Amino acid sequence: MTVPSARGAAVGRGIGIGLMNTLWRPRVLGAWQVPATGPVILAVNHAHNIDGPMLMGTAPRPVHFLIKKEAFIGPLNPFLTGIGQLKVDRSTADRAAVTNALGVLENGGVLGIFPEGTRGGGDFSSIRAGLAYFAVRSGAPIVPVAVLGSERGGRLIPALPPLRSRFDIVFGEPFEPGDGSGRRTRTALDEATVRIQERLTAHLENAKRLSGR
């Protein structure tokens, strides 16, 4: 098992902080809810490619994100690997990615996951079972995170939100989705996934109220 570099993730966080605060105006709410130590899973809605870097630059701790392998192309491959990010093949059961992600949690790190699996409406309408598996297997709490404002395209660079526009990043209350038994059967994970979706959807609605969006 090759555990991603914690030092690399810290470097990535520093890069993210500089980039996000230079190009945009992130407003962070509830960051205190992220446990200061120990394994944590950040479950983030996903409406834009900028959501991952935004979280890396605004989360209170360095984050190792599970990122689709298609992003690891050319010079981005050594860069993303160097800053502690995890490559995952979404077309198959990627055992290496699962092992590395669990390694992050076993070492007390922060794992970032887009539970919808891919960029979409950003409304947590479709949750994959992988998030439940990581949480139940590791015992790590899930912190729901809502990124709001990234879905708007800019005029200068259409693929990116308008420069100096405001984002809201809202962290929610940590929770454990399992039933306390530690079971990892298909039924137990399906039930945990339902609980996760309910909590994430409720957090997104609350985040919209808090941020006024």
TrEMBL record:
GO molecular function (one): 1-acylglycerol-3-phosphate O-acyltransferase activity
UniProt keyword annotations, A-Z: Acyltransferase, Transferase
Protein name, UniProt field: 1-acyl-sn-glycerol-3-phosphate acyltransferase
Keyword Transferase: yes
Key word NADP present: no
Entry-linked PANTHER family: 1-ACYL-SN-GLYCEROL-3-PHOSPHATE ACYLTRANSFERASE
GO cellular-component term (any): plasma membrane
Domain of life: Bacteria
Phospholipid/glycerol acyltransferase domain location: 40-150
SMART domains with a match to the protein in the record: PlsC (SM00563)
GO biological process: phosphatidic acid biosynthetic process
Pfam families: Acyltransferase
